Amino acid sequence: MSNNEDIFKKVVSHAKEYGFVFPSSEIYDGLGAVYDYGQNGVELKNNLRTYWWKAMVQMHENIVGIDAAIFMHPKVWKASGHVDGFSDPMIDNKDSKKRYRADQLLEDKIARYEKDGKTNKANELQEAMDKALLDNDLPQLKSLIETHEIACPISGTRNWTDVRQFNLMFATEMGAAADESDKVYLRPETAQGIFVNFLNVQKTGRMKIPFGIAQTGKAFRNEIIARQFIMRMREFEQMEMQFFIRPGTQKQWYEYWKEARIKWHNKLGYGADKYRFHDHVKLAHYADAAVDIEFDFPFGFKEMEGIHSRTDFDLRNHQELSGKKLQYFDAELDENGKPYGNYIPYVIETSIGLDRLFLATLCACYKEEEVGEDDKKDTRVVLSLPSLLAPYKVAVFPLTKKDGLPEKARVIMDELKFDYNCFYEEKDAIGKRYRRQDALGTPYCITVDHDTLNDDTVTIRYRDTMKQERIPIAKIKEILREELDWKKLLA
Ligand code: GAP
Fold first, then answer.
1. Which of 129, 157, 264, 291 has its Cβ near the most Cβ atoms within 10 Å?
2. Atom of ligand 1 nearest to the CA of 356
3. SS3 381
């Protein structure tokens, strides 16, 4: 097992052991590519979402948020192109009856060629695959699978069906009569809730172009292959922002958002070398330019966020199919002194998967460190999360369970809990309690001991340095306020 595979396995088991992520319906052996967030996971996820929301909405006077419903009129998905075009090329192995994404099988082969030093073969296959995908040439995809002798990982045979397109949307029925007219979809992206509300928000918020609408929420895709833990899920959460602009200004705003978004990622401090841009060769049906921000996961660089120049594709199609005008009157004057007038705005979209950001955070922050000296050497597991993201900000410990120490610790806890998510614990030796908080990523521990009863001082212990300081109780809030200032991430 490579070191990276090893780390990834440890991250996955840490996530379960410490209440971050559980397989869904685990007592029934789980449900493929569906996961539940546990007591600590939900806090970390909420904090990541808050970081995004504050950066996008609170920090931009011209961006507002909404929360649209998951169910939408079925025509929405016709207009957006998802009914006809939101599919992956899939292929089945006739012996194992397993289904695969044809492009994924080819990607895996390319990776194997690269690993074996067969760079020419890898490049050749990559080029041929990109062309077949661009041309939507399904027979050519099958032919590439055959000529490169790709076998099913389960059956080991090369007994393949033809390649077919497989729509990724989940459908269900609304109301009592289960016929085609009642068919509704679980949204495969949150973006359409923003497009159909474009005029509602623009008018009621008296928004002037350029302006943005942001939203976070669940999206659903019937992914053919789901793997790598919460990387590719069938139910996941997106954080998307549509930025409405004057046609012709899309290049400028595309560059602006590329820069703004990479800056946002870098502020987390996981290391600039962990990110790279990847321009799309095959553009989605709605885009005239698209780039991914990829993160260096233990299993390689993979997409975490997409920035797409969506032109007026969505608003134009919704206007056509709904028969409702989705235009904006721009009173500003152009270079000839005439108002820009009515137009359908262009859109730059930023779209990040919250679960992938969560996974990137766990992978970047999971550390095993050697601590102690000589015969007392030990390994500690620490999640070096940015303090503002940690599930618990402070843990409060009485050194022992007696002599009035718990009562004193409770007074401190009761003072802090209004501002910070705090953890209280009396059980076990103090060292063990510190280690448990390290593993959860709690940045500060406050310990109450016998001296506290006499002089109202406590020990504050810092997660990353393990440094301990004696401070007056009265100073705790001041320290926390300084350390847990959103300005550090947002300025
Ligand atoms: N509205 C544009 C859109 O949905 P996308 O590239 O398909 O674009 C955006 O998805 C982001 O959503 C991705 O960058 C990824 O982080 C996340 N995402 C997509 N599919 C996912 C899945 N099956 N599981 C987890 N996250 C996913």
1. 129
2. 16
3. strand
| Mean pLDDT, rounded, for 416-442 | 97
| Amino acid found at 253 | W
Distance 374 CA to ligand 1 centre (A): 48
**Which residue's CA is the closest to the ligand 1 atom numbered 25?**
232
Domain with CATH 3.40.50.800 in the chain: 385-490
User: Domain spanning 3-80+180-361: which superfamily?
Assistant: Bira Bifunctional Protein; Domain 2 (3.30.930.10)
Do 411 and 456 form a contact (C-beta atoms < 8 A)?
A: no
Both tokens assigned to 490? 């947002």
DSSP letter for each residue of 210-229: SEEEEEEEEEE---SS--TG
Render pLDDT for 391-400 as a digit per residue (tens, 0 to 9).
999 999 999 9
Q: Which CATH number fits domain 87-167: 1.20.58.100, 3.30.40.230, 3.20.20.150, 3.40.47.10?
A: 3.30.40.230
Ligand 1 pocket mutation, candidates 240, 308, 313, 356, criterion most atoms within 8 A of CB: 356
Residue given tokens 């790598």 in the structure block:
228
Separation of CA 217 and ligand 1 centre (Å):
12
Pocket test for ligand 1, best of 236, 275, 277, 349 (most atoms within 8 A of CB): 236
**Protein residues whose CB sits closer than 6 Å to any atom of ligand 1:** 189, 191, 221, 223, 232-233, 236, 238, 240, 303-306, 349, 351-353, 355-356
Long-range contact pairs involving 204-208 (C-beta distance under 8 Å, separation at least 24) = 205/64, 207/62, 207/64, 208/62
Q: Check whether 51 has a pLDDT greater than 70.
A: yes
Average pLDDT over residues 266-276: 98
Determine which helix (DSSP H) or strand (DSSP E) holds 144, and give its type and residue range: helix 138-147
> Could you tell me how many residues make up the chain?
491
CA distance 491 to 483: 14
Tell me if 130 sits within 8 A of 281, measured CB to CB: yes
- Please give the distance, rounded to the nearest whole angstrom, from the Cα atom of residue 48 to the centre of ligand 1: 16
DSSP state, residue 474: G
CA atoms lying within 13 Å on the CB side of residue 52: 26
Q: Which fold has domain 385-490?
A: Rossmann fold (3.40.50)
Q: Is pLDDT at 180 greater than 80 in this prediction? A: no
Dist. CA 237 → ligand 1 center (Å): 8
Predicted local distance difference test score (pLDDT) of residue 377: 87
In the chain, list all ranges with CATH 3.30.930.10: 3-80+180-361
Distance 305 CA to ligand 1 centre (A): 7
Average pLDDT on 35-39 reads 98
* Cβ atoms < 10 Å from Cβ of 139: 10
